[in-house]
Recover the amino acids of this structure.
């Protein structure tokens, strides 16, 4: 791939989303852009490049973001954080929150498997509380195509085979030909919105009891990672929990932050 074109697109995507593609990812970027160019009817990468350089519309930028984000996800990913939610975090919050409100934010929800896993957990194990508590599950992402799929709540066989216990599949999904649609009760528990994590400080004005920010900061450069982490930490209520991906480390520590081991999960607790 021409260096000028690679540099142009990687600078564009980093400015727009924070995702930093280094030179070792040239092949990946090229194949993703070639696929996008084909879908949009451009003859080659150079044609797409000239179009983007000279006439970048918001819709075209969204298509580039869709093409260059990595949307890999699956139900109950990593298992341990969901065990921690079930065995410790949610029971503790149900006890502690006397205003009877619990809010959860899946901050990079991709195609919905993460927030829907939380919703299934709540319905399966905490249904007793659901009638008297106001529970909010907010799920956000920068990829419009991922958000569309998440809202539809329809998954193919491979997707439901990844991480989802058969018991949950049979209980909370309906089979429709070759695909599975998530139960309306679960769908209704999650609100999906577009949100760029680079804009959390300007766009998110509420605080949450639980924030899941998993497998997204890993794609950002260090300075971006730290900024987003700081902004997200501000959105966590005292006594709340922030959860990263299983292999991720906290980019920064704060005085009111306490690393807690819950079972096999490591979570970040905001001191009260
Ligand atoms: C690998 S997926 C992780 C999904 C889920 N959290 C999980 O752990 O299974 C990363 C997601 O981050 C989203 N993403 C990347 N940059 C983002 C940004 N600046 N703002 C919001 N979402 C972003 C991508 O669109 C993608 O859906």
């Amino acid at each position: 791939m021409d260096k000028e074109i690679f540099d142009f697109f990687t600078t564009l995507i980093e400015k727009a989303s924070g995702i930093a593609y280094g030179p070792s990812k040239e092949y990946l970027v090229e194949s993703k852009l070639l696929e996008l160019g084909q879908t949009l009817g451009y003859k080659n990468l150079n044609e797409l490049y000239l179009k983007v350089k000279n006439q970048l519309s918001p819709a075209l930028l969204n298509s580039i973001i869709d093409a260059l984000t990595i949307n890999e996800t699956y139900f109950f990913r990593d298992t341990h954080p969901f065990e921690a939610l079930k065995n410790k975090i949610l029971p503790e919050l149900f006890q502690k929150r006397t205003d009877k409100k619990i809010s959860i934010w899946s901050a990079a929800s991709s195609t919905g498997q993460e927030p829907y896993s939380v919703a299934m957990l709540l319905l399966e194990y905490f249904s007793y509380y659901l009638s008297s508590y106001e529970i909010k599950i907010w799920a956000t992402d920068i990829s419009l195509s991922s958000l569309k799929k998440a809202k539809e709540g329809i998954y193919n066989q491979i997707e439901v085979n990844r991480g989802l216990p058969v018991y949950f599949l049979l209980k909370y999904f309906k089979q429709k030909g070759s695909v599975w649609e998530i139960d309306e009760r679960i769908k209704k528990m999650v609100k999906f919105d577009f949100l760029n994590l680079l804009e959390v400080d300007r766009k998110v004005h509420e605080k949450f009891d639980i924030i899941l920010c998993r497998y997204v900061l890993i794609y950002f450069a260090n300075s971006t990672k730290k900024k987003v982490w700081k902004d997200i930490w501000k959105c966590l209520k005292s006594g709340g929990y922030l959860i990263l991906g299983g292999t991720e480390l906290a980019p920064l520590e704060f005085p009111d932050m306490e690393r807690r081991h819950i079972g096999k999960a490591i979570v970040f607790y905001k001191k009260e």
Observations:
- The CA atoms of residues 45 and 180 lie 36 Å apart.
